[in-house]
Amino acid sequence: MSTAKAPQSVETTPAQQLADTEPQTAAGKVLWHFTMSLDGFVAGPDHAMDWMTGFSFRAGLVEEYAATTGAVLGGRDGFDAFPDAGGVYGGAWQGPVFVLTHHPDDVPPASGVTFLNCDVAEAARIGLAAADGKNLEVPSPTIGRQLLERGLIDEIDLHIVPVLLGDGIRLYDNPGGVPVRLGLGLGLLNGDDHAAAVNVRCRPVGT
After folding, report:
1. Would you say 98 and 126 are in contact if contact means Cβ atoms under 8 Å apart?
2. 8 Å CB contact between 29 and 73
3. Which of 57, 96, 142, 165 has the largest CB neighbor count within 10 A?
4. Torsion, CA 179, CA 185, CA 188, CA 191, rounded to 10
5. What pTM did the predictor assign?
C-alpha cells in the first residue's frame, strides 16, 4: 500500500501548531489521504517512495492517523508495489485492509488483506462497515478519483512536502474531466523549518 512509509513526526512551534489543520478525527469518514510533492505527485515512477525522507511533520502525526483509521481501501497497483499490510504507517496501525482488483484470482494470499472484485461504491461500503465508526482511508489515486466522481469522498487530507518530483503518479489525473471545487482548510506557516510539510484538508463542495 502507498501508506507503507509513514512520515516522521517532529516537534513543532506554537506558531506552527496554530497555523496547522485541526487533528484528524475518527468520524466514519472516507478519507483520501496522502503525502504529496509540491508538483502534485503522491508516488514516484513505479510507485517509488524513496523521496519521502528528510521532511518534518507535526509531532504525533503518525499516531493521530493510526488512531483514527479503522480500515484501508487500496488498489491493485499499490498493493503489488507494497504487499505488506503490516507496513501501513510503518507498522503503527493494524486493521482490515481491502484491495479492489478486477483479477483477485491471480493475487497470492496476503495476511490481513481481503481482495474485492466489486463496484467501487460497494467496496467503500464494505470498508466503512469494517472501520466500525473510524475512518476508511483510501491511499489510491485511482480509487480515490472514482469515489470522488461518485460523491463518496468526505475529505481529502494532504501533507505537501517541499520537493518537485517531475514524474510519477499524480494525486488526481483526469484528462478531459471537469474541475472539482473544494472547500479548503489549511496551515501554511512553516516558521524556520524549510523541510516542513504543509497540511491541507479539503471537502468536496460540488461543481
Report:
1. yes
2. no
3. 57
4. -160
5. 0.81
